[in-house]
Amino acid sequence: MRPLGGLLIFLLCAMWSLERECARQLFGENTVKGTDEKEQGVPEILGNGTVSFTPTESYGTACPKGWDFHQGRCFFLSKSELPWNKSMNFCKEKGSTLAIVNTPEKLKFLQDITGAEKYFIGLLYQPVEKTWRWINNAAFNGNVTNQGQNFHCVTIGLTKTYDAVSCNITYRWICEKKAR
């Protein structure tokens, strides 16, 4: 029985080492933290024997530094404020667009990280059509507050709703792009 217990311990140690080495190879040298550190996004061996890798910002590979990872997308939350057009240009320069917040999961994620600030997103009022559209021209099927005030841009945050605002007022902004 004793040799079997030793073999079991050896196999567990080997699996643990292999898991850590796989993570290093996939995500870089500094991505796997020791057991005394917080292990956010570190691979786990699932009950069915497969290894699950959940890339997070801590890996530094799925998203650029300073961007947040969520469901295969990267999000940048600005710390400064610009009008909508300049916000959009900033995102374009970073290979992204203003965020298209078109799912409840994405909205919840962004609401959780925006705090009390308001951020421009990629939703615009089309006065000729009298509809709201995302910057990718997809229709918006939700509700926007402050609509009757000739505001054509939208922010999220603060009130946890889609708020119509003037495109010329400065706000923070959220860029979005596909994760690598």
UniProtKB/TrEMBL annotation:
**UniProt record, GO biological process:** innate immune response
In its UniProt record, a GO molecular function of this protein is: carbohydrate binding
Task: Provide the membrane topology annotation.
Answer: Single-pass type II membrane protein
Q: Which N-terminal stretch is annotated as signal sequence?
A: 1-19
The subcellular localization recorded is: Cell membrane
The UniProt entry, under Pfam families, shows: Lectin_C
Does the record's keyword annotation contain Transferase? no
- What's the stated role of this polypeptide? Functions as a positive regulator of osteoclastogenesis. Cell surface receptor that signals via TYROBP. Regulates inflammatory responses.
Q: What is the lineage of its organism?
A: Eukaryota, Metazoa, Chordata, Craniata, Vertebrata
Q: What is this protein called?
A: C-type lectin domain family 5 member A
InterPro entries from the entry?
C-type_lectin-like, C-type_lectin-like/link_sf, CLEC5A, CTDL_fold, NKR-like_CTLD
Instruction: Please provide, in alphabetical order, the Gene Ontology terms of the cellular component aspect for this entry.
Output: plasma membrane
List each copy of the C-type lectin domain by range.
70-176
Q: Name the UniProt key words of this record, in alphabetical order.
A: Cell membrane, Disulfide bond, Glycoprotein, Immunity, Lectin, Membrane, Signal, Signal-anchor, Transmembrane, Transmembrane helix
Q: Which domain of life is it from?
A: Eukaryota
